[in-house]
Amino acid sequence: MTKPPRVQPGMPSRKQILDFIASSETSAGKREIAKAFGLKGQEKIALKALLRDMADEGLIDGNRTAFHRMGGVPKVTVLRIVAHEDGDLLAIPDTWQPDDATPPPRLRIVEARGSSKVKGPRAPMSALKVGDRVLARTEEVGSGLIAYPMKKLADSAESVLGVIEVDGTGKPWLAPVDKRVRNSLPVSDLGGAEAGNLVLAEPAGKSPRSGVKVTQVLGDPLAPRAFSLIAIHKHGIPFVFPEEAISGADLAAKLQLSEAKREDLRHLPIVAIDPSDARDHDDAIWAEPDGEGGFKALVAIADVSFYVRPGSAIDREARKRANSVYFPDRVVPMLPEVLSADVCSLKSGEDRAAMACHLTIDSEGRVTEWRFTRALVRIAEVVAYEEAQARIDEGRAEPHLQNLWAAWRLLEKARNLRDPLALELPERQVRLDEQGRISEIAIRERIDAHRVVEDFMISANVAAAKALEAKVAPVVYRIHETPGREKLIALKDYLATFDMKLALGQVITPGLFNRMLKDVADETEKALIMEAVLRSQTQAYYGPKNAGHFGLALGSYAHFTSPIRRYADLLVHRALVDAYGLEQAEPKGDIPPRSGLSERDRDDLSKVSEAISQAERRAMEAERDTIDRYVAAWLSGRVGEVFKTRITGVRSFGFFATIVGLGGDGLVPVSTLGREYFHYDEKAQALTAEGSGTRYVLGQILDLRLGEANPLTGALKFELVEGGSAPIERRGQPLPLRHKGKHLAGKPGRPRNIRHQGKRR
Asked: Looking at the chain, which terminus has fewer C-beta neighbours within 10 angstroms, N or C?
């Protein structure tokens, strides 16, 4: 057994405390540390302050009864078995409190009996398996962690989000809102809930027959704002700020900006061009001719790093959230509102702290020089995309807008030479009225104003990555890798069905796909191929090792322009502060003095990069789920109508289709396609009838009748207009799509039944 190091009496240093905690066989709290170093009286008070400072600096975590190294694992803790690899069981902390945004460490389970690490008699433990929870004693061995189980614990309760339904016998059931869950669950304890309530529930016992008990009543599932609430709970998105983060943000908001330490750019007519409904303003731009055919340009970004310091309570919460999540009716911000919507946001006519990216654009649209400063800006105007475009189109734009468009024409010229991937990806937009009801769902129109801002942002993002590379500094890259060979083979096989060839021996570039699409004259066929190309792409992610951005055809790319809503951008800002000596240490009370990277992130960016990539995917799924629910609610009064749709996926059990111009994926089961036998061709992504040769293929446009629309799950079902052999089955109890007598979509429509997901009764 390793003994703690012998210590000399007296106030310990940070390193001595860390060494003691690391080597202690038992939990090391304030009492144990004070006893080890012989501290008394005022020294104990000083120790308490020192431990608090070490926690704020990200050195340790825990509470006064048990500390451990930040990012480490307590000596005794609850673990959950997650994998079985090479004969070893692997576990992670059941609740990863030190930093929920960082992937939890994996510990190897050692079940050997008689270990000196486990003291006292030990009850026989049944064989452990994946999913089990254990109380265990942990130990660091070399660069790894091992755990000695002390006690197997009861299974943790998993919350289920659903709607209470009552069958004909008066028995309550929980219909889960997750469309992947097919069965309703019996309710043993309503907990005050009534039929039709949206609730959170948890298993009432170990057996599935025990059913579930309601733990929280959330209200009317079809009320305004309910759909986003469903997504928040379903995906586990943190949406309530802890009190310490709010108080920390209030304190940070009072920090004074130093004119002497910042470049004063308040004289420039910098403009923020944003959506008309933008909740915050990260970025603003300015440009003027340089007299040599090019432009001097500026991209001003909110200096969030000045207010959100590493190790602070705000930073810990932002790190956990990793990004803001945007819903039609609300935003779940990464930062408390006093920062995200006020102090950090680049508001018109107010002095704001900014990280300024100065760019030199030559006559060919190439960015030849860049530099970064901490600046003081005063935004001349916040203007909506549509308004800025209207001024340009109608010839009434101010000189600062005219200069922006002229500079963008050069950037566009360079972009076209680069030839990034050009796929048309329509964005659905849900518009709500003042009561939170749906007023319209449409595809957001893309105009030049969007491209202007986008190309300025891309230029600044590239400059940030290259500026950090020039200093050999840590970089959180935005990475989009070249499509993998397996996906390219699948694409090659699919293109062959159109008599198109894709030679896998050549260098795969975005331009290759662009030329392929340009050569297709038939719009229906082009939609098919575009869908296939899109499916061949890899998912973008964050990481410290550069692998380029395939879609943008860029060798180095980072996210720098949205630190109010993305933690990745905040990390890039901090790296720039360190690399270019932009530190402006202004400690005040509990606010840490440094605004650059923490030592933890400087030493290893891979953990936080992986965590924020996962959080981004979580946010995207939540946003998409919510839009699907709004679309289903919008369509719930139009069941039975025929819509023009496009096939988005083909499987052996049927195909999925989406309404053109609206979105919302729905299934057409193969059992409803007729009495013929259908062959599934995976390579061609097609279903073909054996006798008639009727064919359903990816990207195909066809008219379908809407058979079902379920707002709670976002699920749709379609059926053929004619020729189908079986109608879509409807079953279950009626749940009218009305809220306090008003239709959710804000317009008259007949109530429809929502399919009950349980057994037929």
From this structure: N
